[in-house]
Amino acid sequence: MQLRVFGRTGMRLSVLGFGCGAVGGFMVRGDPAEQERTIARAIAAGVNYFDTAVQYGDGESEKNLGRVLQKLKPANVAVGTKVRVPPGEFGRIADAVTLSLEGSLARLGLERVDIFHLHNPVTETGGGPALSVRQVLGDVVPAFERLRAQGKIRFLGMTAIGDTAALRQVIDARAFDSAQIVYNMLNPSASEPLPPNYPAQDYGRLFDSTQAAGVGVVGIRVLAGGALSGSTDRHPIAGPAPEPIGSAMSYDADVDRARRLMPLVREGFAASLTEAATRFALSHPAVGTILVGMATPQQFEDALAAVEKGPLPPAALDRLSALRQAFSGEPR
Questions:
Q1: What torsion do the CA atoms of 167, 53, 246, 269 make, to the nearest 10 degrees?
Q2: If I label 27, which of 62, 157, 314, 315 is the partner at 20 to 30 A Cα–Cα?
Q3: Does this model's pTM top 0.70?
Q4: Among 56, 139, 70, which Cα is nearest to 108's?
Q5: Whole-angstrom Cα distance, residue 169 to residue 124?
Q6: Which of 150, 213, 229 is nearest to 181 (CA)?
Q7: What gap in Å lies between CA 269 and CA 209, rounded to an integer?
Q8: How far apart (Å, rounded) are the C-alpha atoms in residues 67 and 78?
Q9: CATH architecture of 3-327
Q10: DSSP designation for 195
Q11: What are the boundaries of each domain within the chain?
Q12: pLDDT by residue (tens digit) across 184-202?
């Protein structure tokens, strides 16, 4: 398993992380014995980053991950979790952050987590579930720093969802060590300019900002919530199709566009769309580790096999770029 230096943290993380999210559902609603076997398999294969959140199954993902890690007791794995401050708690952000972390540590059976990510959207002025840039830098960051000083977290992280300009302001402030950034074959805008009138949120080459600030990148939504399988079928334990996720406003539109990328498979660049999508996410050096949602142990094996083939070659990236040009001008 390839390891990459994760920003300025000094950590060396496996390029494939273990996503414990609710969309795939494996660590929320999966069989406990299969969870244990799959995590043991991942560790044996060199996976050393595990990513969860209290929002994944209202703490079930954290409890299941904690149970398995307590049993396996692996050395040198990094665990990340998240806090989403409810709007009703925006007047007491520090207390809400602290309470959330204490609950997460208890469910995980840990004294500290390696990365603690803010999970709220970030916009210039806030509103709804979103925090403003001022709230993030003025309230969230000091709360995180206090928890770091207490030894309960190692590094400060954020999930880079919200308005692109606001996200760039926060990253450029260099307060965070990690950023989870949307990056997939339907929306590569964190690394390159989008074609004109392209139907996706433009993340404005955020990788330029993360690289300049020394911020480690966790690539998220690598399979666009499952759309980059090219199928609308969902496993019984998977969560509902997420929409929007930074590309189309509907999941069905994402699936339709994903199917239009099938020439990558027919022309021999990858054995499947999911393989192509997984390998695409590794193709930029700014990406430290990627998370691939899963519902079954086999889906983990598929992700592992794809990663072991390495990033897509330049010819595949060129072909992908040409195929995406056809999406310009379509409604999001």
A1: 110
A2: 157
A3: yes
A4: 70
A5: 9
A6: 213
A7: 30
A8: 15
A9: Alpha-Beta Barrel (3.20)
A10: P
A11: 3-327
A12: 999 999 999 999 999 999 9
